[in-house]
């Protein structure tokens, strides 16, 4: 991370600066910048996505070191289907391959994997791979890895409203925030404490619009394949120096 865009006063923090018993339970990441990373190296975008998977593996390890309980990563948005078919099919295959290759490691590390998004609309092979990793890791609790795939927050909210309308026990008077949360894909997951977006853009791009209401936001210039454990440590240390008010004092 270049010093100019650093969210902290201190250049680099060490893991010893972090209060490990008080790390934020939930970190969400918009992993952006794979294409530009590849372009800067005069390589095809696909190489950037491959490097992005390596970066995600390192980040999972770093989250385990930092005692993080939930890691939510945006891997493919509903709007990403606007990209050329060559790239979307590459991304879907890469995701299935990465899941298969990492299954053993995730089981060893006691990581529970949950796939979040419009899963039913994906191709049969991907659905099978997703069901398999979820089943194999469902009892684990060291870290929950939420992989957002074919995900869009507006579509999630639309789906939530459709579910609520189907439930005849819910009346306009009885509808509550809790009831809405119960019908979101993230019903069993606490809201993110930290959102990181790599790649230099300062936008949410249809990610967790309801859930990010009081999340601490970190927009960094680093392109996703270059994101390191040091970057995560810096962000968590910075988070621990922020004061969350939730509208109070
Ligand atoms: C993020 O990297 C990965 C996905 C959206 C699937 P991009 O592919 O968006 O990379 P840039 O933003 O073009 O550099
Ligand atoms: C957001 O990145 C989606 C993912 C990282 C999966 P995009 O690259 O799709 O977002 P925009 O198009 O720059 O808003
Ligand atoms: Mg992008």
SS content category: alpha/beta
Envelope shape: globular
In the CATH hierarchy, what is the architecture at level 2? 3-Layer(aba) Sandwich
**Number of H/I helices:** 7
The CATH topology: Undecaprenyl pyrophosphate synthetase
Using the CA coordinates, give the radius of gyration.
Answer: 18 Å
**In terms of per-residue confidence, which ranges show pLDDT below 50 for 5 or more consecutive residues?**
none
Bound molecules: 3-methylbut-3-enyl trihydrogen diphosphate, magnesium ion
Range of helix content: 25-40%
Give the biggest beta sheet. Answer: 6 strands, parallel
What proportion strand? 5-15%
Corresponding CATH superfamily: Decaprenyl diphosphate synthase-like
Ends apart, CA distance between termini: 32 Å
Number of domains: 1
Give the strand line-up of the largest sheet.
Answer: 3-4-2-1-5-6
Number of strand elements: 6
H/E series, N to C? EHHEHEHEHHEEH
Q: Briefly, what CATH class?
A: Alpha Beta
What are the SSEs and their pairings?
Elements: E1 26-30, H1 34-40, H2 45-65, E2 70-77, H3 85-108, E3 111-116, H4 124-137, E4 143-151, H5 153-166, H6 177-183, E5 194-197, E6 216-219, H7 229-240
Parallel strand pairs: 1-2, 1-5, 2-4, 3-4, 5-6
This protein binds 3-methylbut-3-enyl trihydrogen diphosphate (2 copies) and magnesium ion.
